[in-house]
Design goal:
The protein has 539 residues and is an all-alpha fold. It has 29 helices and no strands. It has a domain of 196 residues. Keywords: TPR repeat.
């Protein structure tokens, strides 16, 4: 915050100087920079007021262009409000809030003025609020809610002036529940549903009840929504998710089966169905099928996070696991003499991260390493560079330097997957290199190469039997390794089409290793690793 204020003050000073010289366009550029750093600073708005006295109200100094700078957009919104056109400025301000919801773009007097809520056409305000709701999260992150509350205040003023506008009540309910005001959301949604019964009104009401913890009433409202439109399978998925979250998995799967019987390719039903079946029995096959569906249906109606939710915080499915305190890995014979080039190190620093949403996302994120030659990728594996000088790199270097080295090797191996992709997998150089790395011993390089092979099995069904057989052999070889047995067992459990025998063997290894770890690993170290993961995932 101190840095932002200093930056804003610097831009503000340069804007004043430019304005004194008559260089209004330069002044506007610096003012846009200042408002981006400190959007509610009074001195900025005083200077904007000087520009607003121009014949055109200063609007031509802040043009709306494709990929416009957020400070320019916000400045224009304030000038429109000053010109008596707040209904034109509000959509711009809401767009800025959707871009960065945690920034206090709306914390200015004209947004919270009761007169704005009275004057604005309620349908327009409802549409602005609905668009804002699609961008701020459901629920909105708690840390950023204060910056969004001026919009809720505005809706309250508008509802008092237009108490019978059903769409405004529903949109206001959607915003209220996202900001933690569940009871207000219920009141507005209830009134809206009484004024104009409809599918959408019942959906708003069902979500409001769910946020308030009133689950039977939520389910009743969502079932009424189904009666309005029996072919909207997204509502079936919402009902199923709500039932599952409250311990009624059989009923939840029944709703999913009903949806899939109507349309086996409905994206909401398929995503929810695989997520719930995985929750029910823990079978990785559900997630693999979901990944296959996502690959084959890249034009889904909207973005889904079910696969990422199922993989979250699971070793190898979403992160490089921290290794236990143990003796050093056995030394591997050097397979690359030279060090990686600076350009290769730079590209690895851009790509490498200890977390990813799910294996196919890790594969996609490694695409940037296609510009690093295989020889350099091998050098990065043999000689992992120091962590990058950024927030994540410094945290890893300070708290878990071994995790960074493993992370670097993992991403270098993922990079190998993107070379000579035209070659058929069984005879490809990328397969040969990774198999050689995986078979070179039982060490950190083994697990990095195995993860790359497993990731490829997620994205290419034709490679699954080959990779599953290789992982099974490596699992047997690692069973006696006190350092890596637990990690490689988790790799095995992340492998598509692994045989039931190997899956049982991996589960037994994990159970035995974790039992031993409870007796030997200090609790403080486990806590430190968990805190580090949460810190990194929040960035």
């Amino acid at each position: 915050m101190d840095d932002s204020r200093r930056s804003a003050d610097g831009d503000l000073e340069r804007a004043r100087a430019a304005l004194d010289r008559g260089e209004v366009h330069h002044a506007a550029d610096h003012l846009a920079g200042a408002i981006a750093h400190a959007p509610t600073l009074p001195e900025i708005h005083e200077l904007l007021g000087r520009l607003a006295t121009r014949a055109d109200g200063g609007l031509e100094l802040f043009p709306l262009e494709q990929h416009a700078f957020v400070g320019t957009v916000v400045a224009r919104a304030h000038l429109l409000a000053a010109a008596g056109r707040p209904e034109d400025g509000l959509p711009l301000l809401a767009a800025a809030s959707g871009h960065t919801p945690g920034v206090d773009w709306a914390g200015v007097p004209w947004v919270s003025d009761p007169g704005l809520g009275e004057r604005m056409e309620p349908g327009l305000l409802a549409r602005i609020v609905m668009q804002l709701c699609t961008t701020i999260g459901d629920p909105a992150p708690e840390a950023g809610r204060a910056a969004l509350r001026p919009y809720l205040t505005l809706v309250g003023h508008a509802v008092r002036a237009h108490a019978d506008h059903a769409m405004l009540l529903g949109a206001g309910s959607a915003l209220a529940r996202r900001l933690g005001e569940a009871e207000q959301a219920v009141r507005w949604a209830t009134r809206g549903a009484r004024l104009r019964p409809s599918k959408l009104a019942e959906i708003w009401l069902g979500y409001a009840y769910r946020s308030a913890g009133r689950i039977p009433e939520s389910l009743a409202a969502l079932r009424r929504a189904v009666m309005y439109d029996p072919d909207d399978l997204s509502v079936y998925a919402d009902i199923a998710g709500t039932l599952a979250d409250h311990g009624r998995m059989d009923d939840a799967l029944d709703w999913i089966d009903r949806a899939l019987a109507k349309n086996p390719d409905d994206d909401c039903a398929v995503h929810t169905g695989h997520r719930l079946r995985y929750r029910a029995d823990g079978d990785l096959a559900h997630l693999v099928r979901l990944a296959d569906f996502q690959r084959d249906h890249f034009d889904d109606t909207h973005e889904h996070t079910d696969l990422a939710e199922c993989c979250a915080d699971q070793p190898w499915l979403s992160r490089v696991p921290s290794g236990p305190d143990s003796p050093p890995d056995p030394a591997r014979e050097p397979f690359v003499a030279g060090a990686p080039t600076p350009a290769a190190v730079e590209r690895l620093h851009r790509a490498a991260h200890p977390l990813w949403p799910h294996p196919p996302a890790a594969y996609d994120a490694a695409l940037g390493l296609v510009l690093v030659e295989p020889e350099d990728l091998l050098a990065l594996i043999a000689h992992p560079p120091a962590a990058p000088d950024d927030e994540v790199g410094r945290a890893l270097a300070a708290h878990d330097p071994d995790l960074w080295r493993r992370c670097a090797q993992v991403w270098a191996c993922l990079g190998l997957l993107h070379h000579r992709t035209e070659e058929p997998w069984p005879f490809s150089i990328r397969r040969r290199l990774l198999v050689d790395l995986a078979k070179g011993g039982v060490d950190r390089i083994t697990e990095a190469a195995l993860f790359a092979l497993i990731t490829y099995a997620w994205v290419d069904p034709a490679a699954r039997s080959d990779v599953a057989a290789l992982v099974g052999r490596r699992l047997a070889a690692a069973a006696g390794s006190p350092t890596l047995a637990w990690s490689i067992a988790h790799l095995a459990l992340a492998t598509p089409d692994l045989s039931p025998e190997n899956r049982e063997r991996a589960a037994a290894i994990i159970k035995a290793e974790e039992h031993a770890a409870l007796l030997t690993i200090p609790r403080q170290r486990n806590r430190r690793a968990g805190l580090l993961r949460r810190w990194i995932s929040g960035r």
